[in-house]
Structure formats: C-alpha cells, structure tokens
Design brief:
Largest sheet: 8 strands, mixed
CATH superfamily of the largest domain: Vaccinia Virus protein VP39
CATH architecture of the largest domain: 3-Layer(aba) Sandwich
Bound molecules: S-adenosylmethionine
Radius of gyration: 21 Å
Structural class: alpha/beta
CATH topology of the largest domain: Rossmann fold
Number of domains: 2
C-alpha cells in the first residue's frame, strides 16, 4: 500500500530547505512523483475511482473519433502507414472503440500502427488487457519515442493534468502563487514576495486589465509545440479534447477531484487528481507559433453532433433493450448536453494540423463562432 503521507512530508521537507514552492512544482510532485504520484500508482477512472471520462461514458465517443481519424487519413492523401497515437489513454477504451469503428475501412486498418503514450504502469496493464489481440500496438512513456511518419494524435483529458503556474495580481504587480507551511504546520497557499519581472507584457490584453486579487493561470507551451511541430513536419493532425475556455482569461480553476467530488488540493497530496481548466487560446497560439494550422475550437457537443452522434445513438437504441436504450439516451445527453454534469459545452475540441490540410471534419470556422458564443 502506497504511503501518501510520505509525499506530504517530502513536500514539507522541500519547502523547509528551499522555500515556498510554486503551485506548478506542487502539482507536478502530486501527480508525477516517482513513488507517490497520483498518476504513477493507480487507476483513477470509473464509478469506483475518482472521475469518469467521455470514452468511459459511451462507446459512441471512441467510435466517432475513429471515424474522424479516417477523415484525416483521407485529407493527408491516404499514406501507406498512419501512426494512430493516443496520449494519456486511460484504460484504452477510446482506442479500442476507435479501432473497432475503423475495421470497416480495410485499406486504412491495414495502414495503421497504434501508439499509446502512458506513464502510469497500472493503466498500461489495463490498456494491454483492453487491446489484447490487436496487432501492431506499441507503448511509449514519451511522445518523442513515437516513430516518424504521418500521424493522427488524440488526447482526451490529457492537457488538464499537465501542471499549471498561477500568478496573483497585487498593487505591486503579478506575484507567483506558492505553497508554503502555516504556523500550525499545514500546507497553505501564499504568494512570492517579489513580482514576476515584466510579466504584464506577456499577458493577453484582457488579463492585463484584471483587478487586484485576480488569478491568472498558464501552462508551459512545450507540449503543444512538440505535437504541433510533429504534424507540421510529418503530416497528419492532432485532436485535443478537454474542459476549458476558448479565450485566455483570469480565474482560479486549480482543483482536486476525489471520489467524484471536489476536494482541497492541499489536503492529501498524491491522493486526489489535481487539474486545471485548459486555456484553448493559449494552446492554439502555441501551435500556430510553430507553423501548424489550427481548427476550432468548437464545443464537444457541436463536434460530436457534426460527426453524427445522434444518428449513431438511434441505431444503437434500435437494437437495445429498454434499459440499455435509456442508458444510451443518458450518455448522449451527458456527452453533448449543457448544464450540471453535462460535458457538451464545458468541453472544447481543438484540431492542429499540417498546414497543407486546410480543413478538418467537424471543426470548421462557423462551428468556432458557435463556440465563441458560449461562456468561457
Ligand atoms: C484524466 S486521465 C484521461 C484518460 C483517458 N484519456 C480518458 O479519457 O479516459 C489522464 C491520462 O493521462 C495519463 N498521463 C498523465 N500524465 C501523463 C504524462 N506526463 N504522459 C503521458 N500520460 C500521462 C494518465 O495516466 C491517464 O491515462
């Protein structure tokens, strides 16, 4: 049994020796510490776990992403080898559903080599079980290990677990938010004493005008740039799906999720999932900065409807028992609907492609305008 209180002690030891720790470093240790990190030690998914993702809600999600991948293969000129890559593949459910849908296209199915980028050994075993019997599947701990060639790269709920920085606006400027130790020995939030030099000039105009007390979050651009540079140079496209906002803005979205409820992010390091919303404007800018083309973002509800999820639901329901039919209808509402518990407008979808691919299915500009009409 992993001793997570050891991580709390380790974090306090580091703070005592090196001073308050940026939120970014705290999040990284909680998620990826080699012995006690949340994503190094467990399967967090499903009813018995901490959260449920779209592929675990319904097979329709992965099937439609499979068909979307086929449309990229066509747009890329039907290359004889296509790398189908998933970063952060959870239990392998989405890939299994995508591959089942792709079996109806033998020329593409024969051209596929499947690559799963996963750091979690527990989930890697589950992926192996889910994908047992499928040929040409390879695992990697780093995206850079995926062999060259045109690729479709899928990432659902991956970017939200990448660590964020936070800065708090004070009269004196923007100060990095840190984790420190209170007088009673607990982990608490604080701010670095000195402002971040020349930080204002890096900020989007909307954020520069924020009032004192506002919190701004950002992630390093490196991961998006690596993915974008890959499709720019080798062809194909990436699809990023996550919860977040279409415009960069202020707001504290750093949160812990355990047992399907929000928890205090400082309470039990390594025991809860730590996440923050994804800034899709920043992701798109990072991809465009390296010369890739971006498509969208659109809302998940719009994206799935454009791919035909309603028709797929009707055809599955036609063959189902009344109970299963009700489950399919519930899944459809959850994946595409709005409001509490629904993912249709909270989740966004961004395409990033080789600049030679001028449009991607279901991610056209009119859909982008629909997404911009949604609250950020
Ligand atoms: C929130 S889960 C989403 C799982 C899956 N995509 C789904 O939708 O069910 C995040 C996934 O990313 C993996 N992960 C976290 N950090 C990672 C990293 N640095 N590199 C690769 N995978 C990572 C986790 O182990 C897990 O598979």
């Amino acid at each position: 049994m992993t001793d997570f209180s050891a991580l709390s002690e380790e974090i306090k030891r580091l703070i005592k020796s090196a001073g308050p720790m940026p939120v970014w470093r705290y999040m990284e240790l909680c998620l990826n510490h080699p012995d006690y990190g949340y994503y190094v030690s467990r399967d967090p998914l499903g009813r018995e776990g901490d959260f449920t993702t779209s592929p675990e809600i319904s097979q329709m999600f992965g099937e439609l992403l499979g068909l979307w991948s086929a449309s990229v293969w066509t747009a890329a000129g039907e290359p004889s080898t296509l790398r189908l890559v998933e970063i952060g593949p959870g239990r392998g459910t989405m890939m299994a559903d995508a591959l089942r849908a792709l079996r109806v296209l033998p020329p593409l199915y024969q051209a596929l080599s499947v690559h799963l980028v996963e750091i979690n050994p527990v989930l890697r075993e589950k992926q192996k079980a889910t994908l047992a019997g499928i040929r040409n599947v390879h695992w990697h701990t780093d995206f850079a290990e995926v062999p060259d060639g045109p690729a479709v790269i899928l990432a659902n709920e991956y970017f939200d677990v990448l660590p964020i920085h936070q800065a708090v606006k004070r009269e004196t400027g923007w100060h990095e938010r840190v984790v420190e130790i209170s007088g009673s020995g607990a982990l608490v939030f604080g701010v670095a004493p000195d402002p971040i030099p020349r930080f204002d000039v890096l900020l989007p105009p909307l954020v520069r005008m924020a009032p004192v007390g506002a919190v701004f979050e950002w992630r390093p651009d490196a991961e998006m740039m690596r993915i974008a540079a890959r499709v720019r140079d080798q062809g194909g496209a990436a699809l990023i799906i996550d919860y977040g906002h279409v415009r960069s803005d202020v707001g504290d979205t750093f949160q812990a999720i355990a047992r399907h409820s929000f928890a205090d992010p400082l309470q039990s390091p390594g025991r809860a999932d730590l996440t923050a919303h994804v800034d899709f404007q920043a992701l798109a800018r990072a991809a465009e900065d390296v010369g890739a083309r971006t498509h969208g973002p659109v809302t998940q509800g719009e994206f799935l409807k454009r791919l035909g999820i309603e028709t797929r639901a009707v055809s599955l329901m036609a063959k189902a028992t009344p109970q299963v039919s009700e489950d399919i209808s519930g899944a459809l509402k959850r994946l595409t609907g709005e409001g509490r518990g629904a993912m249709g407008s909270m989740f966004k979808v961004l395409g990033v492609s080789d600049p030679a691919i001028t449009s991607l299915v279901a991610l056209s500009d009119d859909a982008r305008h629909a997404a911009e009409g949604q609250p950020a």
